Amino acid sequence: MPTQAWGTPAAQPGAPEPPRKKNRTAVIAIVTAVAVVAAAAVTAVLVINKDDDKKDTAKGDKKPSAAASSSTDAPSQDDGSDGRGSEDNPRANAPVEPVIPGWKTVTNPKRHDVFDVPAGWYVKSPETMSTFSKDGKPIISMTGPAYYKEDNCTVKDKKTGATLSSPLAGAGTKGAQGAKSQAEAAKTEANNWLYAVFDQHETGDYKFTQLPTKFTNKYGIKGYSAAATVTGVKKTDKCSSDGKTFTVTYTDINGDWATWVLYAAKGVKDEVSDETIKKVMSTLRPLKSGT
C-alpha cells in the first residue's frame, strides 16, 4: 500500500479534483477544512466532529491538487467498540449488536448506517475520520472507519523521516450528495479510493470487477454497488501494493445519499478475501435514531 498516503499532518484543504487515468474519470469529493493536531506516526485517521464531506459534491475531471494524511485531535475508541452513541443521549448508550455472532459492530451516526467486521478488525470511534491526502492536502475521506491489521506495514518517510503505517484493509462511510446518480457514485468512489490509497502516482491498471449493480439486502438497504481493482502498481517501497475496492451507495434514513466503502490490499499475505468482503457488505443496515 503506498506510504505517501499515510502519516503526513493534514493541511487546510482546498477544493481538490479527480485524476485522469487512461479512460477512467475519478471524481474526488470536496473535503471541508478542519483544525488538525499533527500526529505523524499514526495511520490516516483524522478525528473531528465536523463533516467529512460537508458539501458532499463531485467536481470536475482534472488532476487533484491535493496526499494522504494522518492526524487526530481526540482519542480514538478501542477495538472493543460497541457502537455506543453520545453520552448526552441516554438512549444512544444501548449497544448495537452484530448480526454475525462473534463479529464487531461499526456504527456511523453521521451517515446512519451500521455494519459488522470480523473479530480481528480494529473499530475506531464513530467520530473518527480517515483521510488520504496528496501533496499535504486531503483529497478523500470517510468517517466511522474500521481497519484490518491497522499497522500491517510501516516505512520511513523519505522527506520527513517519520514512521508511516498502513492497514491491510479499511472500511467506512462517506457522503454522496451531489452525485448525478447512485450508480455513478458507487462507480466513482470505487475508482477514487483505489487512486487515493494505492496508486497516487497513477502507475497501475484499473478495472471494474463489478459495474454498478442494484443493491438490496434483507435489512432494507437499497442502492447500487460496484467493485474495482488496480494492478501493476509501481512498487516504490515495501508497503506498495495493488488494491481492490467495494462500494455501496444508498439512501440513508434522512433521505441523503451516502457511500459505504471497503478498500483492501490485493495480492499480499493475509489479503482479505472477496468472500469476506461481501459478507461484511451483507451486514450493512440502517442506524435508527436513538440506537
TrEMBL record:
Record's keyword annotation contains RNA-binding: no
Keywords: Membrane, Transmembrane, Transmembrane helix
Domain named DUF8017: residues: 97-288
Chain residue ranges for the region called Disordered: 1-21, 50-105
Bias (Low complexity) ranges: 65-78
InterPro entries in the cross-refs: DUF8017
Superkingdom field: Bacteria
Composition skew (Basic and acidic residues), residue ranges: 50-64, 81-90
Parts of the chain that traverse the membrane: 26-48
Full protein name: DUF8017 domain-containing protein
Species, as recorded: Streptomyces milbemycinicus
